[in-house]
Q: What sequence folds into this?
């Protein structure tokens, strides 16, 4: 029995150390997601500059993804969450944090305009409400892993 | 002689357009979608002003107009699929999952899994811009933090093998889940070969 108690205690201490190590590991890639589908004109805006967003482009927090009238795009994040957009869309990846050991973290996407479909990945396993979408008028989150939002453009 | 321009009519229609644009604003639509198994949960739409709307079940939908709280909408599944057609069509393919097994307490694959590893490579070749996530797991024999280390070691070993085979280093990520996610739930300290594994997701 003593053996068990000691192991639980050392596990708790160890877990803290391992968490630290895995955090570093999770961020080691330096990117939070990737473009997996890109059709028509799709652009990325980062640091005030715009460039094309083809399949394979790596994404970072605060990136803005834009689609033109013929554009649509599908993104996949480190926790396997996906976000896809139809034409004339604009989405800001406001926040992405993910610990690949515990599945804890946060995902905030701001849909400024357009039709967007979201499928939550591992982040929702740990905490369903950690995957959140914001629009000009509302905040959307919940237990539903898959949902879609449309913000009509001007 | 040309017909004179009808100024009053022009002004009226211009006014109508301005009014309509102002009234329409940016309408927002919210929809719950089913997952691959057809299951769906509950979504909460919380407006900046007014009461939140709860949407429950597959294809439950709501609409929000500027200045008023969101209300339920009566969109059919077909209408939703049509309205979101391009976004739904642009969803990435689901990752292909491969499970490989290890010898007890080690980061060496079993002989069978060594062969199965080739299926992973075949899948990588099929994808346009492949990236792989390797997640290591253990059974419940041993201390929690030892299993955290073992799981990560298993994942990193397989990650290195993929990089050696030519995958760019930043296209493979390794993670350890320790005892957290057994394939076969067991009591503590029970050896279970099916839990000593890595899951490789080719995306």
A:
């Amino acid at each position: 029995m003593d053996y068990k108690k000691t192991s639980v205690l050392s596990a708790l201490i160890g877990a803290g150390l391992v968490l630290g190590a895995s955090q570093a590991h999770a961020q080691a890639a330096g990117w939070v997601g990737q473009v997996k589908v890109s059709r028509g004109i799709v652009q990325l805006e980062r640091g005030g500059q715009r460039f094309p967003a083809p399949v394979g482009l790596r994404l970072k927090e605060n990136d803005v993804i834009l689609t033109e009238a013929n554009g649509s795009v599908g993104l996949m994040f480190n926790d396997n969450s996906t976000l896809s957009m139809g034409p004339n869309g604009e989405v800001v990846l406001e926040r992405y944090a993910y610990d690949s050991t515990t599945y804890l973290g946060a995902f905030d996407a701001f849909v400024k305009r357009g039709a967007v479909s979201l499928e939550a990945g591992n982040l929702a396993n740990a905490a369903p409400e950690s995957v959140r979408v914001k629009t000009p008028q509302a905040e959307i989150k919940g237990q539903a892993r898959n949902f879609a939002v449309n913000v009509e453009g001007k | 002689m040309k017909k004179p321009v009808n100024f009053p009519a022009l002004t009226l229609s211009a006014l109508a357009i301005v009014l309509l644009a102002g009234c329409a604003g940016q309408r927002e639509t919210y929809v719950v979608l089913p997952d691959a198994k057809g299951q769906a949960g509950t979504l909460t739409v919380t407006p900046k002003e007014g009461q939140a709307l709860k949407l429950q079940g597959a294809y439950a939908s709501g609409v929000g107009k500027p200045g008023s709280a969101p209300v339920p909408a009566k969109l059919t599944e077909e209408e939703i699929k049509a309205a979101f057609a391009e976004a739904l069509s642009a969803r990435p393919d689901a990752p292909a999952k491969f499970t490989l097994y290890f010898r007890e307490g080690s980061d060496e694959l079993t002989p069978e899994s060594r062969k199965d590893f080739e299926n992973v490579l075949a899948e990588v070749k099929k994808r346009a811009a492949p990236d792989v996530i390797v997640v290591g797991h253990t059974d419940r024999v041993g201390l929690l933090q030892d299993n955290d280390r073992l799981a990560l070691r298993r994942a990193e070993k397989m990650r290195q093998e993929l990089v050696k085979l030519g995958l760019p280093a930043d296209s493979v990520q390794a993670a350890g889940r320790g005892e957290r996610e057994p394939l076969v739930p067991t009591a503590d300290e029970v050896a279970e070969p099916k839990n000593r594994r890595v899951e490789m997701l080719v995306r």
About this structure: Confidence is low (pLDDT under 50) at residues 18-24 of chain B.
